[in-house]
Design brief:
This protein is mostly beta strands. It is built from 1 helix and 12 strands, in the order E-E-E-E-E-E-E-E-E-E-E-H-E. The relative contact order is 0.25.
């Protein structure tokens, strides 16, 4: 899936081994994944897709600073599915924290594994308790 604000951006599904970069796409309000080789092309992930980052993941705090999340692996999830016009793309980290993809600092990742099924989403209660802004 790709976040709601990326629906007008040219995209393709993720493949195992893809080298991705987090990027802000032109004329959108969101950050997402693009192919390292095709930076204008959004790469959409299915819930449950596993990623390995080159470095420890950092996210923006809303100010000039960023904070480290303590992990270099994550699983893609969808959150806030019942709400339209909000960000849905998120990453779940091994400690259970969930961070919106649009809040990530620039970084590089590799797709390790695609989900066995597309049902790899968190339940609403679990999602709300663990979502980190």
């Amino acid at each position: 899936m790709c976040d709601y604000s990326l629906h007008l951006i040219t995209s393709r599904p993720a493949r195992v081994g893809d080298k991705l970069v987090t990027t802000r796409f032109p004329n959108t309000i969101t950050r997402g994944f693009a192919s390292v080789d095709e930076p204008e092309l959004a790469v959409c992930l299915l819930p449950g897709t596993e990623l390995a980052f080159e470095k420890e993941v950092q996210c923006e705090t809303g100010i000039v600073f960023s904070r480290r999340l303590g992990h270099a692996v994550a699983k893609f999830q969808l959150v806030n599915k019942s709400q339209s016009n909000v960000h849905h793309d998120a990453l779940e980290f091994p400690d259970g924290k969930v961070v919106l993809l649009t809040n990530l600092c620039k970084g590089r990742a590799t797709v390790l594994q695609l989900p066995a099924s597309a049902s790899g989403t968190l339940g609403d209660t679990q999602r709300q308790k663990s979502l980190v802004m």
